[in-house]
Each structure stands twice: as structure tokens, then as C-alpha cells.
């Protein structure tokens, strides 16, 4: 009498696990890992969804990404907000468009988040030209003051 494959033992005589059982364990592990990452990212980014939608409405096709927290685990370091977004205008022309965009983003942050939680706003603007380099510009602003935007590094090229 032969045993049905459904009722077959998953181990061989040498103690190794049979192939179908290994495949089933790998699929289960992949599903659990994917679900865990999805749940973590959902709850981590949920507070920033209204801000991301507001930035997308103000700057179409900007694909904003918003994140916040502390740079280091050390106690007492200031909480910061990082916003990365695509822009359509030239970042190396020297005009005021990047600073105006960053100031508008700061206004949106003040409308949608509790600004007392965070000290600094980091805005990274980038523009990708087809078949060319990526222009980027980093702008840091304090959230607790009404100071104008301060540009950290000069516009850079990323190859």
C-alpha cells in the first residue's frame, strides 16, 4: 500500500527536509516578511499622508516623499522633517523658484503638521533631465522661526 503524497512525511531518512516543504516554508516566509514591511511602512508614513497629498496638489507630478524623525538615536537630538520632491524648473539658473517652492512647502508643513514637534525642515528638490544628469538642491529651514530659507550647498550634479 502506497502512501498518499498529501500524508507523506516531510523529512527524509537522513533528517533533511523534503523539497515541497522547503518551497512552502519559503513562500510563507516571503508572505510574512512582505506583510510585516507593508504594515510597518503604512503606520510609519500614515501621519504624513495629508501633507504628501497637499504637496502633490500644489506641485503636480512632484512625487513627494515625506519622512520625519531624528538623525541619531542619541537622546535630545532635534526632530526633523525631510521632504524630497521632483520639480520641473531649472535648479541651476539662479532664480528664486527653488526658494519660493521651499517656502510654499514650509507653509504646507505648518498647515498639516504640528510644527512644535519638529525643529528643522529639509527640502530636497531634484530635476531629472532625460539622458542627462540630475540637478538637485537642498534647502534647510527652521520650523519654529519665520526666517527666510537658507540654502546649504550650491546646486549639485549627480551623475
Short description:
Helices cover 33% and strands 23% of the residues.
Question: What does the model show?
Answer:
- The protein is α+β, with helices and mostly antiparallel strands and 159 residues long.
- It has a domain at 48-158.
- The protein contains 3 helices and 6 strands; from the N terminus they run ααββαββββ.
- Strands 1, 2, 3, 4, 5 and 6 form a 6-stranded mixed β-sheet that branches.
- Strand 1 (65-70) and strand 2 form a beta hairpin.
- Helix 2 (49-58) packs antiparallel against helix 3 (97-112).
- It is elongated and about 75 Å long.
* Class derived from helix and strand content: alpha+beta
Termini separation (Å)?
68 Å
**Number of DSSP strand runs:** 6
Radius of gyration: 24 Å
The gross shape turns out to be elongated
Fraction of helical residues: 25-40%
The helix/strand order is: HHEEHEEEE
Mean pLDDT: 80
How many helices in DSSP terms?
3
- The proportion of residues in beta strands is 15-25%
Largest sheet descriptor: 6 strands, mixed
What are the low-pLDDT stretches, counting only 5+ consecutive residues below 50? 146-155
Amino acid at each position: 500500500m502506497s502512501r498518499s503524497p498529501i500524508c507523506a512525511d516531510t523529512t527524509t531518512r537522513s533528517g533533511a527536509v523534503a523539497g515541497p516543504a522547503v518551497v512552502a516554508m519559503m513562500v510563507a516566509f516571503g508572505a510574512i516578511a512582505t506583510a510585516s514591511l507593508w504594515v510597518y511602512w503604512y503606520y510609519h508614513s500614515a501621519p504624513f499622508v495629508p501633507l504628501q497629498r497637499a504637496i502633490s496638489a500644489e506641485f503636480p507630478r512632484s512625487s513627494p516623499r515625506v519622512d520625519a524623525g531624528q538623525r541619531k538615536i542619541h537622546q535630545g537630538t532635534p526632530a526633523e522633517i525631510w521632504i524630497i520632491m521632483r520639480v520641473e524648473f531649472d535648479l541651476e539658473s539662479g532664480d528664486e523658484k527653488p526658494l519660493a517652492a521651499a517656502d510654499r512647502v514650509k507653509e504646507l508643513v505648518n498647515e498639516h503638521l504640528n510644527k512644535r514637534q519638529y525643529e528643522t525642515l529639509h527640502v530636497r528638490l531634484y530635476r531629472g533631465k532625460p539622458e542627462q544628469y540630475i540637478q538637485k538642491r537642498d534647502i534647510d529651514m527652521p520650523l519654529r522661526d519665520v526666517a527666510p530659507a537658507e540654502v546649504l550647498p550650491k546646486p549639485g550634479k549627480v551623475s
